[in-house]
Amino acid sequence: MKVSGTPMRTIWLEPDGAAVGIIDQTRLPHELVTARLVTLDDAAHAIRAMLVRGAPLIGATAAYGVALAMRRDPSDAALAEACRVLLATRPTAVNLRWAIEDVAAILKGLPPSERARAALRRAGEIADEDVTINRAIGTHGLPLLRAAYDKKGRGASVAVLTHCNAGWLATVDWGTALAPIYAAHEAGLPVHVWVDETRPRNQGASLTAWELQQHGVPHTIIVDNAGGHLMQHGRVDLCITGTDRTTATGDVANKIGTYLKALAADDNGVPFYVALPSPTIDWSISDGRRDIPIEERDATEVTEIAGRLPDGTLARVRLTPDGSPAANYAFDVTPARLVTGLITERGVCAASREGLLSLFPERAARMAGE
User: Which of 61, 59, 56 is nearest to 24 (CA)?
Assistant: First the structure.
């Protein structure tokens, strides 16, 4: 996607080949700053501290993290340690585990002298594959927006509500939930996005709004609790969110507050779609509420907020009384019964085991043999 008219990805191999470049997303929307990842610890810190975030981008960064570790020490022990360190950074996003296991499986069959080069090659492939997948999600999601536009009589913009950030900043490029929106915008379909602020880290207000603005997509930031009101008054045509982990039965774990949006959508008859690349599907679990680990982050994300002061300087300020405790659950689980459909790189399906297997029949054969 574009920043000030120039195409840009969220992660790349630096021209000198000695480091991996990323956008430091903790500095957005006030500053566009890039960072260099040179070591395994750099990659782990970038994931843990959310310089990079979003399930697909976390996976790509972890793959590059393994490659950086192999440059320093390609031994079996170092490979095992790299996988352990990276797996511990973010527990909810399944792409993290998928990417690490994918790269590790390739490296285990190679002599140490070949591992660094092979890991770097595979990390680049994972990044490129993510772009292809997300572009396809946009292609398959576009008809949903066209249908909403036709239903309105082609007299007004299609109003889409999204939660958190599932745009290109959450992936390598294009995004998941925002990919159909970008596809609609590129096709000349009028679209307007209601952007949930997404407390406590404000990924909607800080990141979704920034990237939509950079790409010229009309949007309005709203507080998290305004979505239900808008739906009650017919001002939302459909909701599209992303997901960090999707069960084999269609339950989805996404940023905290997604479940409440799905409940409001269900109560008001608003279609609620979830966009996901196939590596986000965890075929090993069926009950999302029971089996998906929910990350609990530092309470200061709730008690403090970062912003720009009137003089232009950036600062963190406290929002809550000194001594008041805060809980910071990063995700919640939306049950499949509240999801209208899943938008994948292979098409749109029902949020169910049968729906997913209709698009990924090879999984049925594999699961039957397990």
Answer: 61
Exactly one of 102, 130, 244, 332 is catalytic; name it. Answer: 244
Strand partners, 317: 305
> Which tens digit of pLDDT belongs to each residue from 63-105?
999 999 999 999 999 999 999 999 999 887 788 999 999 999 9
Q: Read off the DSSP letter of residue 329.
A: B
For residue 117, pLDDT over 90 is answered with yes
C-beta of residue 44 within 8 angstroms of C-beta of residue 86: yes
Chain CA centroid to CA 84, Å: 22
pLDDT tier at 128, thresholds 50, 70, 90? very high
Clarify whether 244 is annotated catalytic: yes
CA gap 170, 176 in Å, rounded = 8
Mean of all residue pLDDT scores within the chain: 95
Q: Where are the beta strands (DSSP E) in the chain?
A: 2-3, 6-7, 11-13, 20-23, 34-37, 158-162, 191-196, 219-222, 238-241, 245-247, 252-255, 272-275, 281-282, 304-308, 314-318, 331-334, 341-344, 347-349
**Quick one: pLDDT at residue 3?**
87
Q: Are 241 and 234 in contact (CB under 8 A)?
A: no
Structure tokens at 158: 């299609």
